[in-house]
Amino acid sequence: MIHQIIAITFKELKVLWLDREALALLFAMPMFFILVMSFALEGVFEAGQKGHPIEVMVVNRNGGVLAEQTIADLKRLEGLTLIQTHEGISLTSEKADQLIRKGVYPLALLFPEGYTERIRQIPNSLQNDKPTVYLISDPAMNFQLLATVKGAIQSVIERRLLLIRVPQHFKEMFGGLGDMERQIDNMLGNQNKIERERSGVNFIHTFPTGYNVGRRPTATEQNVPAYTIFGVFFIVLTLASSFLQEKKDGTFQRILAAPLPKAALLIGKLLPYYLVNLIQIALMFSVGVIVFGMALGHLPALVMVSLALAAAANGLGLLVAALGKTEAQVNGLSVLLAITLSALGGMMVPTFIMPGLMKSLSLFTPHAWALAGYHDIIVRGLSVKQILPEVGALLGFASFFFAIALWRFRFD
């Protein structure tokens, strides 16, 4: 029996060795996942820490000493890098808006005129004369990360506010009071006033000009597009496996024996998968709308991105079908591409908190362009004209995939 087990084992090892590409994928896949996922997800766990700071632009339109002191306090925060100039020129609110729209930086902090003067005044009314600070962010920025940064900045600003106001309150409480009873009443009253003024800054969160954001985007509107793109590219495995099976069964050869152009065969074979992708997209967005009340934005633009996305996914599927010679190769390559491209393209972690190299590599994935297009429409409120670059990039990926696939594809 032992000899039989050994014989069968050697036979299976020979079978595995015959398909060296699939065997190599078995070892390469986990190593590749470790490298890509570790680098891509590094930003999730380290964003906002000393080794991986979040860049925040600062626009100081006030010019007063207290605004400068607050900025100096913020510079001492670990996990934040303050950007006050761009290309050697001090930032303005217009330039900060432009840089956020271009995706250079995700956040800007604006100290308006009169900030220092209002801090120095003890408000007669808690509702009036409060200093105002504006936090401007990309609508597509991750909510959890935004809340963390906002809380840290607000804490530093209010700490500086208290350093100015508390001495003034103590002067009021203890200065020139002879009547003990009146002194106690004033102490209690002023202490309550201090507590009420702990949130003495109007901290206003807003978005760059030029975005048609009617309301604050929800987490669903940020996440549904990413998971939709992730799901769409799973068509690669289904499509490539179907093509491989047709080759093995000799179906292509029998069909081509008839007077049928190869182009017609390929188009007819691809169209069902293209339609499946479009139904996938419609279904996933419908769930977002019906269950979570998600806004879809400009529908013609949404349709354009979806059509281009499905074309890119089908092109990649045909490319895998052309490259894979066995079922193991097709399965391994499909999974490798699906997970790796999703991680690089920002489906699992926002690209702006990725390391520089990973951020650059994301531009070479259709996933990143599709996600940018959907976010432009759904989260940023843009329309057809503004999303043409993303649509063009997706069609470029589709053309590239189809061109290489047709060059390498064999019907036998």
Word description of this protein:
The strands form two sheets. Strands 2-1-5-6-7 form a five-stranded mixed beta sheet, sandwiched between helices. 33% of the residues are buried. Strand 1, helix 3 (65-75) and strand 2 (80-83) form a beta-alpha-beta unit. It has 16 helices and seven strands. Helices cover 66% and strands 8% of the residues. With 412 residues, it is of the alpha/beta class. It starts with a helix and ends with a helix. The protein has two domains: 48-206, abc type-2 transporter like fold, CATH 3.40.1710; 216-408, no CATH class. Mean pLDDT is 78; it is low at 187-198. Helix 3 crosses helix 6 and helix 11 (262-292) crosses helix 12.
State the secondary-structure class.
alpha/beta
Radius of gyration, taken over Cα atoms and rounded to an integer in Å = 29 Å
Q: Which outline best applies?
A: elongated
Number of strands: 7
Mean pLDDT: 78
Written as H for each helix and E for each strand, in order along the chain, the element string is: HHEHEEEHEHEHHEHHHHHHHHH
Helix content estimate: 55-70%
User: Could you list the spans in which at least 5 consecutive residues all have pLDDT below 50?
Assistant: 187-198
* Strand line-up across the major sheet: 2-1-5-6-7
Query: What fraction of the residues are assigned to beta strands by DSSP?
Result: 5-15%
Query: How many helical elements?
Result: 16
Distance between the termini: 41 Å
The largest β sheet comes out as: 5 strands, mixed
> How many domains in all?
2
